[in-house]
Amino acid sequence: MRLEEQSAAVRDAVPVEYADLVVSVTELGGTTLLMLLLAVLFWCVDRRRSALVISYAIAGLALLLSLKALFALPRPPEDAMLIALEREREGYGFPSGHAFAAAVVYGGLVSAFDRARDPRALLAAGVMVALVSLSRVVLGVHYLGDVIVGAALGVGFVVAMDRLTRGDPTIGFAVALALSVPAIALAGGRGDALLGLGGSIGGLLSSLRLSALPALRSRLEGVALVVLGGSFVGVVQTVESAVASIEPLVAALYAILVAGIFFVPAAVGRLEIGVLESRRT
User: Fold this and answer.
1) What count of Cα atoms within 13 Å lies in the side-chain half-sphere of residue 58?
2) Distance CA 107, CA 153 (A)
């Protein structure tokens, strides 16, 4: 079922000299980069559609943690790894979280931005998902079956969320909150489960005020949003590292993180600086 022999063939096809490149590719499906991508799109492109995909990502994370805990299948043995990556040894191996997350976020963006009939958008999303998925196999932290199932589940999850939410981020975060409860129960109060719980609460409350956020006034204001928002995210991550052992505080910080992403535009919008108020042409 997990295609162990085929996975070994994929691993053997990539020499260790390309390890750094493979690690860079795998980060395209990591939680940090995907959330940063969605935050930048929220600040600079389209608030409602980006918020919708953020809700998909958080809801998907909660669902995936529950599935991993239910299947409880191990990762490949340590000697299968391309290079030593200690943090990649944690958790269960089936289905692949990176493959699932890549399908949910990149596929969710295609759907939310109404590009599902655009062959170029579909191809781009498909290539990203395939690259992330294969990188997990090459690194030796998943079998080929893990990433195939993860990617397929991600696509199915996007389709289901599209129908459930009908484009409403508030519904998406409500679904995320509902899914985070069994995730906490099954996977325990570790980082990703707390992100699902805290992020869904912060997103749910913040999405109620989404329509009140000011529109982007200029390209320069977009730069200011990225700088201020990125700094805010960095501060929250620093605090999170300091209180990592206190689960309620970690969940609260994740709620603040997602709420902060939503309300950075409101903070910058209050700045009456002429150059920021120049409308885009």
Assistant:
1) 35
2) 12
* CA dist list (Å): 210 to 50, 99, 199: 11, 30, 16
| Tokens matching residue 174 | 């409500």
Give residue limits of the domains in the chain: 4-206
For the chain, the farthest-separated pair of C-alpha atoms sits apart, in whole angstroms, at 62
Q: Write the CA distances from 16 to 12, 122, 142, 255, integer angstroms.
A: 9, 31, 17, 40
Structure tokens at 179: 């899914």
Least confident of 31-45, 90-104, 167-181, 185-199: 185-199
DSSP 209: T
What's the CA gap between 52 and 56, in Å, rounded?
Answer: 6
Q: What are phi and psi of 53, to 5 degrees?
A: -70, -35
Kindly report whether the global pTM for this prediction surpasses the value 0.70.
yes
Average pLDDT in the chain: 89
77/251 Cα distance (integer angstroms): 32
Spatial contact of 14 and 138, defined as CB atoms under 8 Å apart: yes
Residue 161 is predicted with a pLDDT of: 97
Residue 125 has pLDDT above 60, yes or no: yes
- Average pLDDT of span 1-17: 88
Residue with tokens 């969320």: 161
Q: Which has more confidence, 209 or 104?
A: 104
214: tokens are 């000011």
Contact 170, 262 (CB under 8 A): no
Give the C-alpha separation, 225 to 2, whole Å: 44
Whole-angstrom distance, CA of residue 248 vs CA of residue 165: 28
User: 276 near 268, Cβ under 8 Å?
Assistant: yes
Neighbours of 134 (CB within 10 A): 20
What is the mean predicted confidence (pLDDT) over 227-234? 87
DSSP H or E segment with residue 122: helix 119-139
